[in-house]
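Notebook, student rotation project (T.W.).
Task set for the rotation: take a protein with a known small-molecule partner, predict the structure of the complex, and write up what can be learned from the model alone. Partner molecule chosen: adenosine-5'-diphosphate. Sequence and SMILES entered below by T.W., checked by me.
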Amino acid sequence: MSAPSPMEISLQNPQDNEIPDQNGVIAVDSAPSPSLPHDKVLVSVEVSLKPSSTARIDDVRSAVERMLEKRSLSYTDGPVPVPPDDQFLTENVQRICICDTDEWVQNHEILLFWQVKPVVHVFQLSEEGACEDVSGDGQPSTFNEWILPAKEFDGMWESLIYESGLKQRLLQYAASALLFTEKGVNPFLVSWNRIVLLHGPPGTGKTSLCKALAQKLSIRFNSRYPQCQLIEVNAHSLFSKWFSESGKLVAKLFQKIQEMVEEENNLVFVLIDEVESLAAARKAALSGSEPSDSIRVVNALLTQLDKLKSAPNVIILTTSNITAAIDIAFVDRADIKAYVGPPTLQARYEILRSCLQELIRTGILSNFEDCESLMLPNYGSLKEKLNMPEVQDARTLHMCKQLLETAEACEGLSGRSLRKLPFLGHAALASPYGCDPSKFLSTMIDTARRERSELPD
Ligand SMILES: Nc1ncnc2c1ncn2[C@@H]1O[C@H](COP(=O)(O)OP(=O)(O)O)[C@@H](O)[C@H]1O
Ligand SMILES: [Mg+2]
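Predicted structure of the complex:
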């Protein structure tokens, strides 16, 4: 019997007949037309508690469910206002957010309240921040640790913009893997594992996506796993030439992880960023250009990871900046391999739109009175707006065109460069205060062209 081939998911292969269900799991929509399904659509609703709240999760969940029942509106991604007359909710709840309806809305246009069965996830963000392993002797630390869901990663998932449901599919695969484990599926009969590999050019959001995915899963699975940690292993530091203690550190690190994993209510994410550096170090050591110490360290790390991956409550997240096959056994066996490419025109437009909206919110861009409430249309409704110029506010329409032009000018730039562009554009302005958004966009187009011209071929 041959091993199942890894599930390749990529931005180039959209599967558009999927709809989200509970836990972010996507169910295949078997309805032949966009007609209504027999069953209700399960929609995730995330409820973040105030840091001061000591309310019971179950009580908050019921209160939110009751509140949603009363609300006869359509469901779209985004915040739901906490009703000011509900004292219990206003005291305890920071934010209520509808998630993952995007794909449904794209295929069916609208999701009405009676079609929906909300699945409410209540959580409280940990404010502890990263806990570094400091060895105290000035050496780089070997790992960072977070308790999830962490305040630091709040909003990260939403800020990452990809097309064709990449995020949704990642969530689905990870959720399925956890479900199979949970239900005790016999791995000799059905094989799967919990290793994720995101590969693609630098700056496309792979590291961020891993962290955001861990955060999402910690929220969606908190009733099964009330405790959740993310350990980010700093692979570079582990085998730096000057790091003679590496072997011991790997052992120490994995002993710690093993202890976490033994607690069955813990869900543990281990992030190994840029795994290609492990393969490179091994190769270099074999050819004699690196101390043989480092080969032992890399091998120790790989053995430990191999051992760890049989634990049911561990998800190993890896990234690689090279798309070619990586000569590391455990990555080779990753079930979830996703190519993360540079943003497409639509993604670029959306990234820049979110940047602009933020500069408007903070008042860095403004010149007219109601500027704060200015909402630029998303890419989906852009075409329609451009086709019916007569019904649009002329100023908004002009800005949309400029934004689109900027997004077009940014072809080839990474997500990371795009998020920096508004800052560079602002720094190039003659006057930094109260700039007109439209003037700002003209500067951005020039900045984008300049940035692009500096890209290596
Ligand atoms: N597709 C994207 N959508 C939104 N932001 C992105 C995207 N890709 C990259 N970014 C931005 O670039 C930053 C750096 O991404 P990072 O996760 O370090 O990329 P990588 O690990 O692929 O090099 C992110 O924090 C994010 O702000
Ligand atoms: Mg990275």
